[in-house]
């Protein structure tokens, strides 16, 4: 699909997340929403299925999630009747833990390969199989310094249009939406590719 990014961002400035999602889905033949079932993910998922109930939902399950995250995921999949597509790494976490001596620290030379195996490779494999033309994601500009340089609508390196409906929302906005719609949340979450919440895992810097 072809989108004028500057024009799209000008058009969507000041729009609500729901209006941004409606715009995105209207401009897409095969939209996709990604999730990792981290805190507040029920917001984007709930918004997306209100507009398109059967939208493809991609979950790259690293194999290192907490028990609480897996329970949260199962609840949301059932409650929202998600059209979920789960992709997993090609190597089991148990085997990788032996070969890499556990999860490599971020300054360990093995960390980039670890991130590639548990997140980037399964994600790229998913994109090649599901073939979306538009990717809805839940990034917000207040999350990391890098994300402040982005915008609501951007393009991936291979041409997929990326749309961040919640880009200008704050955590307070998210909490209000959860309360208004009686949605669950789960803060017991672990991303093995990050040492800090303000660190990028690579999906939005490399893809």
UniProtKB/TrEMBL annotation:
One of its GO terms (molecular function) is phosphoadenylyl-sulfate reductase (thioredoxin) activity. InterPro entries: PAPS_reduct_dom, Rossmann-like_a/b/a_fold. One of its GO terms (cellular component) is cytoplasm. Gene3D superfamilies: HUPs. PANTHER family: PHOSPHOADENOSINE PHOSPHOSULFATE REDUCTASE (PTHR46509:SF1). Pfam families: PAPS_reduct. Belongs to the PAPS reductase family. CysH subfamily. Signal peptide: none annotated. Pathway: Sulfur metabolism; hydrogen sulfide biosynthesis; sulfite from sulfate. It comes from Marinobacterium iners DSM 11526. This is Phosphoadenylylsulfate reductase (Thioredoxin). Residues 34-185 form the Phosphoadenosine phosphosulphate reductase domain. GO terms for biological process: sulfate assimilation, phosphoadenylyl sulfate reduction by phosphoadenylyl-sulfate reductase (thioredoxin).
